[in-house]
Amino acid sequence: MSISIATKDQSMSFRKPGALSRRSTDEWLLGGVLAIGMVGLVIAVVAPLYTLLSKSVQNHEGEFVGLQNFATYVSTPSLVGSIANSLTVALLSTLIVTTLAFCAAYAINRTRLPLKGLFRTILVLPILAPSLLPAISLVYLFGNQGVLKELLMGESIYGPIGVVIGSCFWTFPHALMILLTALANSDARLYESAKVLGASPFRTFLTVTLPGVKYGLISTAFVVFTLVITDFGVPKVIGGQFNVLATDIYKQVIGQQNFEMGAAVSVILLLPALLTFIADRWVQRRQSAALTSKAVPWVPEKRAVVDKVFTVILVALSTTILGIIGMAIYASLVKFWPYNLELSFNNYRFDLMDGGGWEAYWNSIRMATYTALIGTFFIFFNAYLVEKLKGFVIAKFLFHMMAILPLAVPGLVLGLAYIFYFNSPANPLNGIYGTMAILVVCTISHFYTVCHLTAVTALKQIDPEFEAVSSSLKVPQFITFWRVTLPVCLPAVLDIGIYLFVNAMTTVSAVIFLYSYNTMLASVAVLNMDDAGDIAPAAAMAVMIMLTCVTAKLVHWAISRVLLQRTQRWRIRETEGTTS
Length: 580
Hints:
mainly alpha, 2 strands
């Protein structure tokens, strides 16, 4: 692929009569497409959230009652205790995960350990499994008939202990990826200066390493806190009588059909997520560049003691992750735990179990595929318009703000908002309620922000001169998008697609309120089978979800290699046959 760039002065010489009108026409057409995208985000995000907020201040008859629902919740001891439980579990999990993830990221980036690639692959495996999998595995490990229950010294896994361990398991990869990025770059001059000044390794760590990654640590803490406090799967499976805000919403809506109280609890759950989101945005704005143009890349020295210590840490973390995943796989193959430990595939005969059968699994495949295909196209093209379309400043700003909003909205809250909005008979879109379409729309909306930011980051790396030259040559902008922008940004596009597919397969909170009898999903089937006492089949379905995500990642890797070799060849500088 050959790309040539002209300067602004050169591009003006290419302009022909009528080019300005053609460009203006293109801009108006693309502006109309952006307006359609804005309407889509209003329908998928803004309107449902507004309906949820309205419902939280109404009674059963739809009359405005102000803060009465919140007052009722706060005055009920059994309910208000959930706030303290949620905060306790989230804070404890954040402290544990941030500490362990930092140690792992430091070991991978700042030591001379062997097999770093293998360790890194193992440590991110939990991101491919639903949050229900570690909870089920912990039941087999530390439950009433668990193989390691003696390690708890009489304490029960059904409660805060189980919720914290399960939450740490599935949030660990998210923290690790942030801290790996934070620790990836460092200036060797700072470490050389510290060494010349006689600073000890520990003092150098405190005065050079930690300040350099402090914003990464803060962002990690915010992300983990938000993920834990809004999670529904782990506390639902292993929380027992230990109530948290997420399970309170589920009980109010599903158990008691008290939708108004469910809306009030959702607003309460929305507040900590919104506050952490705002704080994280503030922290990222204050962050400055870690490397300057004069920086010298730092290469870690070989330190025998330090390397051995961090080897032990990585081995322990990897063993724990593989042990939890391995226990879930083993439990799914056991005939009847713990009385008949023979191995068979009886637990994979989902059609004989409560929970939707194999149809639920194939529904998840369909939903994840639709989400990846439709979501990738919609997100990337609209991000392109926001970043590359000239004019329409206010519209682009509003679209970007709406695209950021879903990051602060828990999946359970968004799902309940969809009930209130799309289940209303007065809504012209009421027909999609209970169909596969609403599951796809909700899932895309739930994970919209990360994909949007990924696309914008990739698009910012492309010089605006491409559009300027194309406009001067009377080339429609969508042709430039197809021939230049899309091939250049193809790695980001593929990453968005696999991100949406994996999250669509594993999510449960965003869809728990929206499925119908003919759109049952695999992640929901895991929950239903666990409720029915079919724990081994639930483990089997969770394993199937994880294996599907692993397979999808391998397919993504293979497709990426083939496509990127063809479309990214221009990135490789050819030196053969050239003369100096």
